[in-house]
Amino acid sequence: MEIASFSGSITRDKDGKPVVHVHCVVALLRNGAVYAGHLLHGRVSLTLQLYLTDSEPLLRRRNQYIRARIEQVMVHERSATFR
Ligand SMILES: [Zn+2]
Prior knowledge:
This protein is an alpha+beta fold and 83 residues long. Helix content is 31%, strand content 31%.
């Protein structure tokens, strides 16, 4: 079996436990059949190269931007109310 695609995310649930969500495409070497879906469990027999990125700083900046925009809208609505 060959992994053709492997992507997803690792987040945390409300209790802080890691939650792995992976979409995977695999090809069977013996007949070329391809299967895709969520990876529920698996075991690597030789090697698996993974490239992980930490999106926490990006998500933090995005959330700060959203909060700032909400505050701007609220201030604008408040000032519009008193005109
Ligand atoms: Zn999914």
